[in-house]
Amino acid sequence: MKNIAPAIFPPNGIGDTKPTNQAVLDWVHELGNLTKPENIFWCDGSERENEFLIAESLKQNVLIKLNEKKVPRSYLHRSNPNDVARVEKVTFICTPTKEEAGPTNNWSDPADTYSKLYGLLNGAMRGRTMFVVPYIMGPPDSPLTKVGFEITDSKYVVLSMRIMTRMGKIALKRLGNDPKAEWNRGVHSLLDVDPDRRFICHFPQDNTIISVGSGYGGNVLLSKKCFALRIGSYLACKQGWMAEHMLILGVESPEGRKHYVAAAFPSACGKTNFAMLIPPAHFNGWKVTTVGDDIAWMEIRDGRLFAVNPENGYFGVVPGTSYKSNPNAMKSIEHDTLYTNVALTDDNDVWWEGKDGAPPKHAIDWRGNDWTPDSKEKAAHPNSRFATPMRNNPALDPDVEKGEGVPISAIIFGGRRSDTVPLVYEAFDWNHGVYLGATMASETTAAATGTVGKVRRDPMAMLPFCGYNIGDYFRHWMDIGKRLTNPPLIFNVNWFRKGENGKFLWPGFGENMRVLKWVIDRCEQTGGALKSPVGWLPSPHDLDLEELDIDHKSVADLLGIDHEEWQKELAEHKMFFDSLGGVVPEELQKQREQLVARFNE
Ligand code: GTP
Ligand code: SPV
Ligand code: MN
Predict the structure, then answer these.
(1) Is the pLDDT of residue 2 over 90?
(2) How remote is the CA of residue 297 from the centroid of ligand 3, in Å?
(3) What is the per-residue pLDDT across 228-280, written as a single tens digit (0 to 9) for each?
(4) Which of 296, 399, 495, 562 could form a disulfide with 307 if both were Cys (CB 3.0 to 4.6 A apart)?
(5) Pocket of ligand 2, candidates 79, 315, 317: which has the most ligand atoms within 8 Å of its Cβ, to mutate?
(6) Which residues are catalytic?
(7) What angle, 0 to 180 degrees and rounded to 10, lies between the N-to-C axes of helices 563-579 and 430-439?
């Protein structure tokens, strides 16, 4: 195997922070014997360690240094062109029985899979450095916080994990010396980045992840989708909490009343943008703050749902990010940012489709080839990403470190739907809300390899991330509802409905504040709504559309329920439930029948 990740040799005092927990030491020892690295680098998360790793990564062309004046302390990484997104078809849940993984996951037998992966890992780190990355997910003093270790032979992974998680000594301290303590075991090797030898495998019962053959974010930053969502959702169901693919935002009125909202949209459907929303001028005095942009861990306290963001940074979609669409994101990625697969300008600045200003006359595209505005190819990959510390965000919520989390007033589901689904509506109650989540659908995006733009059911935006049987997951949602005395209201939104001309009807981005305001009004029992078969719908005058350049017809189209489209939609709900082969809880089947009945009233 070609050595695409040659070993590095740190000076004394770097790479030698060995944990004292015997279970960790035994595990690293075992993986060391298997993968046979040149040396082992124990990460501590320090500044000095980071500088050393960056310097070595520059030498090995893992990173390109960007223009220090334009984007200080920032770097570009290019992943292999065959490796630019999550790959769902090689993502596996390895539970003892296929039933535990359920109808929506790829399943493989744990013993067979360990043996296959151990075969691939045998000697895989020869001539390479094995990095041991300790990290925690969650604020340092939260009861929800969990420890993970990732072993990797990729410097890019180590540098990214330092941005995306609280990494290093803090995790060693949290874990302590109890050999029986709970912690996630993550093993990653690039191997030779061959799509035929690429597998992302989860062993929920063992709290273990093994990922081989990829160097792309969602496949290899094991803290994120793999631990915080797939393994996390399994642990959450067992332990009575929730791990969800949700942003968390705070919204404060001019009078100083504050609510927190969590929202689940599928990959590349607007979570980061919504979490960083800047209200339009008309909403003078309103403030939106970010707790998290991708994942929420939630638990019940005093009959309410409280959420923390387990992450420490944002791994966001770059294309389309501009001062017009998302100024907070732009300010966040102006410094101390690790870019992946964007274009490089002649003065070592970064560029992407949708960035403010004119395109450069010449650039190097994400593949490393010459690019000009006449090129047929995109300069930046549609799924190019930034990794940036959350502390770069000017709108970071002051309670982001609060161990108890923030109380959630509303949960919003949303997808990318050109038709059928109105701009916003509210569920009648918790179980109806669970039904909205369970039947939501979205057009697929470049965040995962495969067809883009195809409508698929993506329950709670968790289709690729639920680490166990989706029927049990639905049941868990309803069990949580029973335990909540003060449950969040549940909504559904769709920023992506199109008009007859094929253009988006809704301006989106900052203007989504108008929808958020209605959500808050409903939470405060001041907002008006009409009863419709699908749920509570705002009438045009229930939404604050002042100073918005939108015509009456568009608003009517956005809020309209087209009965013909909905007959098709209802049939698709049924087909989806049927396709799950009997795991759907009775209560959700009942919800579907009631929805059908409301349309026939
Ligand atoms: P992941 O990081 O993959 O989970 O994606 P995400 O859900 O955080 O999506 P993100 O906010 O990065 O947005 C993805 C794409 O949708 C970008 O190209 C955005 O420009 C676009 N987008 C986000 N919000 C809106 C909106 O309100 N309206 C429209 N039309 N596009 C939007
Ligand atoms: C997503 O696809 O939902 C992402 C990007 O947030 S990744 O971390 O690659 O999964
Ligand atoms: Mn995002």
Answers:
(1) no
(2) 16
(3) 999 999 999 999 999 999 999 999 999 999 999 999 999 999 999 999 999 99
(4) 296
(5) 315
(6) 269
(7) 80
User: How many whole angstroms from its chain centre is CA 545?
Assistant: 30
1: pLDDT strictly greater than 80: no
What's the rounded mean pLDDT across residues 294-315? 98
Whether 504 is in the pocket of ligand 1, judged by its Cβ within 6 Å, is yes
Non-local CB neighbours of 560 within 8 Å, separated by 6+ positions: 422
Q: Is 86 in the pocket of ligand 2 (CB under 6 A)?
A: yes
Asked whether 554 lines ligand 1 (CB < 6 A), one says: no
Q: How far is the CA of 271 from the centre of ligand 1 (A)?
A: 6
Residue whose structure tokens are 């040149």: 38
Amino acid at 256: G
Using the structure block, give the residue that is written with the tokens 């929805």.
595
461: left (phi over 0), alpha (psi -120 to 50) or beta: left
Q: How far is the CA of 71 from the centre of ligand 3 (A)?
A: 21
Is the CB of residue 338 less than 8 Å from the CB of residue 157?
no
With a 6 A CB cut-off, is 511 part of the ligand 2 pocket? no
Please report the pLDDT score of residue 510 as a whole number. 98
For 458-508, what is each residue's pLDDT tens digit? 999 999 999 999 999 999 999 999 999 999 999 999 999 999 999 999 999
**pTM for the full model?**
0.98
In the reported structure, the alpha carbon of residue 532 is separated from the centroid of ligand 1 by a whole-number distance in angstroms of 28
Which residue's CA is minimally distant from atom 11 of ligand 1?
Answer: 270
Which residue's CA lies nearest to atom 8 of ligand 2? 218
> Are the CB atoms for 275 and 315 separated by under 8 Å?
no
Backbone angles phi, psi at 136, to 5 degrees: -120, 150
Q: Which ligand is nearest to the CA of 164?
A: 2
SS3 state at 408: strand
Reading the block at residue 62, the tokens are 């893992």
Which ligand sits nearest to residue 496's alpha carbon? 1
Compute and round to an integer the Cα radius of gyration of the chain.
24
- Look up residue 236 and give its amino acid: A
User: Residues 48-65: what's their mean pLDDT?
Assistant: 98
Q: What is the pLDDT of residues 100-137, one digit of tens each?
A: 999 999 999 999 999 999 999 999 999 999 999 999 99
| Amino acid (1-letter code) at residue 159 | L
Strand ordering across the sheet containing 385-389:
64-65, 75-77, 338-340, 385-389, 313-317
